[in-house]
Every structure is written in structure tokens, then in C-alpha cells.
Specification:
By secondary structure, the chain is an alpha+beta fold. Helices cover 63% and strands 15% of the residues. Helix 2 packs antiparallel against helix 6.
């Protein structure tokens, strides 16, 4: 007698479970894709490093990938605002870093220059300090742009629609009895 009742309750649960519509107020979640941006930057850095060791101007052309790969990842995720902001950060922050490094490097080099006689002539090291500072500032600016991109821009809001909300009946039988339940995602 238990078997027909169990079968009937399973059929009822199956019919009811497949006929309940999804909620109209679908929840949303945030999907992060910072690791995809990091992978794009790793590829761009590798391409730039490999191209800069070759002869010609391939290094300069390949460095364009540092500015374009991550914005393209944003566009692939439908995040136009993220792509525009990413490109802006990748252009502005290295330039600001380069200027700050140029000034800072020249100032540090000038402060460390000692003069034995007056008037003191600026040494050739002043230009070296300025260019080293400029390189460090550029790298720091690009690094900052990448970190901001990964942490704050590499996300999008995803609506969880009816195709994501589902439930189904579960029936389990053992030698000690039968259990009937429901499982699902909402």
C-alpha cells in the first residue's frame, strides 16, 4: 500500500514543482572578473617583453597591448563604463607617474650632488636620476591603474532570471524507509 501512495506523492510533487513560475522580482548578484583582467595584463606584459627584445619598433607597437587588452575584456563582459575608465586610468596614471618620477628623480639626484667649488655645475647624473625616476614613476602608475582595474572595475551586476531559479522533487529509498523532499536554487 505504501508504494502507490509514494508514487502518487512523487507525481504530485513533480507536477507542482514544474508548474510554479519564477518570482517576478528576480534577485541580482555581482560577478567579478578581475582574474581575467590580470590574465590579459599578463599576456600584454609577456608580448611587450618579448617584442622589446627583438630589433625594430616591435616593442613600442606591442606596448599598445598594455592599454587595450583589459578594456577589451571589459567590453567582452558588456561593461562599457569599465572599459572607458580602464583605458583612461591606463593612459593617465603612467603619465602622471612619469612626471612625478622625473621631478622627484632630478631632485634626489640634485640633492645628492656635492660641489667642491662654487658655482656648482649640475652633473651628468642629474639627467640619469631624472630618467630613472621617470621609469619608476611610469611603472608605478601602470601598476596602480592595473590594481584599481582589478579591484574596482572588474565586476558587473548580473540579474538572476527564471532560468537560474529552479527546484525539483527528491525521492530517496533505503531499507529503513523512504524520504520525500525538495531541492532547488532561488
Amino acid at each position: 500500500m505504501r508504494s502507490p501512495a509514494l508514487l502518487a506523492s512523487f507525481v504530485v510533487a513533480l507536477i507542482v514543482g514544474t508548474s510554479i513560475p519564477a518570482r517576478a522580482d528576480s534577485p541580482a548578484t555581482t560577478r567579478r572578473y578581475g582574474f581575467e583582467l590580470a590574465a590579459a595584463d599578463a599576456a600584454a606584459l609577456t608580448i611587450t617583453a618579448l617584442a622589446s627584445t627583438s630589433r625594430g619598433d616591435r616593442g613600442a607597437i606591442a606596448s599598445v597591448s598594455l592599454f587595450t587588452f583589459a578594456p577589451l575584456v571589459h567590453l567582452a563582459h558588456g561593461n562599457r563604463h569599465g572599459a572607458e575608465t580602464s583605458l583612461g586610468l591606463r593612459l593617465a596614471l603612467p603619465a602622471i607617474g612619469a612626471v612625478a618620477g622625473l621631478v622627484g628623480g632630478a631632485a634626489i639626484q640634485h640633492a645628492s650632488t656635492t660641489c667642491a667649488a662654487e658655482p656648482c655645475e649640475p652633473a651628468d647624473g642629474l639627467a640619469t636620476g631624472a630618467f630613472v625616476g621617470m621609469g619608476i614613476g611610469t611603472l608605478a602608475g601602470m601598476g596602480a591603474a592595473m590594481v584599481i582595474d582589478y579591484a574596482f572595475l572588474g565586476k558587473k551586476r548580473v540579474e538572476i532570471g527564471p532560468e537560474h531559479a529552479a527546484w525539483s522533487p527528491v525521492v530517496s529509498a533505503s531499507q529503513h524507509g523512504v524520504s520525500l523532499g525538495v531541492t532547488g536554487t532561488f
